Amino acid sequence: MWISGRREPLRSKKKASPLHEITILAYVLHVGTGMIALAAGTLALFARKGSYLHRRAGTVFVVAMVVMATFAAYLAIAVPGQIVNLFIATFTLYLVATSWMAVHRKECMAGITERIGLFIAICLWAPFAILSFQLATASPPFFNSAVPLKGPVLIAIYTFTAVLTIAMIGDTQVVLSGGTSGAARIARHLWRMCFALTLTTGSAFTNGFSRLLPGPHHVPPLFFFPQFLPLGLLVFWIIRVRFTGWFRQNDPAQLVSC
User: The pTM is what?
Assistant: First the structure.
């Protein structure tokens, strides 16, 4: 175009594709609902168990986690080199869903949802078990990873494999015994919710908040410690529910044996 007698080159503005805009929106919703889940999960963790505040915060946590993990699964597919996050997102959805069902399903009852949960657990466990075996025996992994499978990543893979093994065994017991009840039912709810919160906390501090630091992206060692808080509380509550008198074993309503 012509301005003041001087010729200015035309600058063509490249319009962003709809897919790019959807991906940006997915990032915003993923991060936003992740922050909500982190706040609600922390509140539910410290609130008196069974109280109104605990139940409401837990509901917000579940909804936010489902939305966050759903968009994480989309981003794992849409963004190159992030396919491993599809497994993590599915694992998170599985933990939250089965934990929610543990306290909303009637005692000593198991149906199609529990069988679906077991099927998902097996599908998630199988690739992690194969990968853990390959890494432990120094065999070539069955997929190419953009991130070196060593150090903290290797520890994370072994941890996921161990947790999925425990989850799969627990789901098998629930399906075969026709449900769960009493302290085992509450423990099932607690450890799955706490581990889902651990995943959210770890992602927020090591992958999210660390990017706000000045200079090249790096994760300070201090940012690894917040995720140990829900893990520590997980251990505390499992011991308290399963091995102490906190859970009212003499309550006739809780003495149902499946």
Answer: 0.83
